[in-house]
Amino acid sequence: MPKKNKINIRKRNGKFQIRFMIDGQEYSKTVESDSMDNAIDIKTKMELDIKSGNYISKSDITLNEFYSTFRRDYLVPKSAEMTINDYDVKYNRYALNRIGKMQIQNIKAKDIYDFYSNVRNTSNAKEGTLKIVHSYLRKILNFACDLDYISKNPMAKVETPKPVVEKFVVWTPEEVNQFLDYSKTRNIWTYLPMAFTIMTGLRRSEVCGLKWEDVDFNKKTIKLTRTVHQITGKPYPVIQLGKTEKSMATIPVSEIAINLLRDILSLHMITMTQVGKDKFNNKDGWVFLNSSGGLINSGWVTNSFRENLQSLDLPRPMNLKGFRHMFATFLLQRNIHPKVVQELLRHSTFKLTMDTYSHVVESVGREAVSSIDDILSGAKQN
Question: Which strands sit side by side in the sheet containing 250-252, from one edge to the other?
Fold first, then answer.
């Protein structure tokens, strides 16, 4: 005859401890609860889980099983959709079928290092990606500590992967114009966001998120209030509003960028006249559209960039994000102060700007100090 399952509740240090027996084996669970009544509700659910066989003790739960808890109770209430999606993508791609099958109480620092080694040997993941995975895994296991699934986070003994700083390719202004001229002949609708990116240094999600209400032609500024994204399983666009004053701000733009916006507005009006408002109706006021008058798909812009690049003999590797880098590089090469570049790029810190463009600043600095030769050479001769 199986032993009776026994469940008791007691309050200790402001928390409720539920102790229970499963076929003679004792288990305990400490829970946050507002009252004894709420603790009793938790106890009732546990009884049902035990009787149905759905209860998983802390000693048996795998990292994959705990990730579902982490996602539901930590990510969803606190994070934006893009953040949740990135956690899901990174976890499913790298951790799910590797370290995810281990019971979390058995995960040691060595297992984390073995996991990183496996990712390096079996995927194309770069150290920068591993650094993000490291950060996510640390947060997941920190939450496991908070819920008393583990007493210590093994990540505390694991060194953060250090990404190799890659030097990005910079085209000459002539090469940029060659690419843009070709892109314009291929498809005017994808050319426009590409051109605006190099003219402003905006991210793809920021460019696609622009509406006409954000543009001030008189002041030559644009107001960044939203970004648009693609998330698998969700209708496009997924709109994310700015979370910080630094990332979402009103920024000045060049005369050439303002002129491009005027050209875009004229193109919209001409197209609407030619095909009719019923076939080209930009009711939401987006700046960058497709040929049907709807918001342009950001993935389509990226794919078009790659296809156009394949047809041209230009320095590589290069992607659309490289246009943002070139915007900053061109400014620094014109001796624009790095602090101004930081504000235009909306980097969170000045250090980030300096670290990213240190080689450009160094070359500009070398030109600057060479002027000392001209100044002092005459004095030395005298």
Answer: 215-216, 221-223, 250-252
